[in-house]
């Protein structure tokens, strides 16, 4: 009883707002400046990643598993910085006007990309790791895209996040075949911006994914935060966009001889399933193909093929060479695999 009383007392007393009002708040809020500390936790039920080994990795590609601490700064669309802090170093992505820097303290290496303002479609380097959302704003943007008739929207309890009062908006799939139970968005009562996003899987009490501020300020950061000064001993590489594109193309398989993958999406909303069929491209490395096949052969057999299941998504590799992926149950993937629309012949 005492614990319940404390929990209730911890909830701030805020004027009531409906789910519709909170949606309008999120979609009309304006962000001029921000800095803070973000904690990201991912417990998707994936196999253990060796690079984590109980420590917080400072690699930007490690965000799909474990707990990570990031520092973020934002000062308009032309100035942004994300710093991933690890026990053995840190990695930064700094964007300032036409300049973008990617720096790893562990590798003592930095890459500098220069975009061309004259090209409307030049948004900087395509190789910046994205993985899972690195801020509550990114996660909320993804969640809001899911709102359609297949989504039930409601309000939850008020909360204190990073020392600030927040409303809670809850998104739930109407289709029970979805592995997502609900998405909870904590919205700053004053600034109307997301402070925390949690994704809960069916049957799980704790979030499979969470990204939240532990400290935040909505004051514009000083411009010095977006100036990169390479530490002593850092090897700086000036990235040549033409060379990067050439190397990227060289790594791509030759799809000119009928090997281009066939793809389709079956269903809509939370239970949509991506389906792909592809044959071996010309010039494919047999050794690499065998390695991939060895991994597939280790997956359990079920539902008409090899399966891989996590808390929030399932994968089915059928015996006839198709790959189906969706945030749905393995049984739903098997149903889609039998659907004429998913045959890709």
TrEMBL record:
Residue ranges of domain MucB/RseB N-terminal in the record: 146-220
Region (Disordered): 112-135, 243-262
Pfam families: MucB_RseB (PF03888)
Xref: InterPro entries: LolA/LolB/LppX (IPR029046), MucB/RseB_N (IPR033434), Sporulation_related (IPR052944)
Top-level division of the source organism's lineage: Bacteria
Compositionally biased intervals (Basic and acidic residues): 112-124
Gene3D superfamilies referenced in this protein's UniProt entry, alphabetically: Lipoprotein localisation LolA/LolB/LppX
PANTHER family, per database record: SPORULATION PROTEIN YDCC
Protein's name according to its UniProt entry: Membrane protein
Organism whose genome encodes this protein: Dactylosporangium sucinum
Classification of source organism: Bacteria, Bacillati, Actinomycetota, Actinomycetes, Micromonosporales
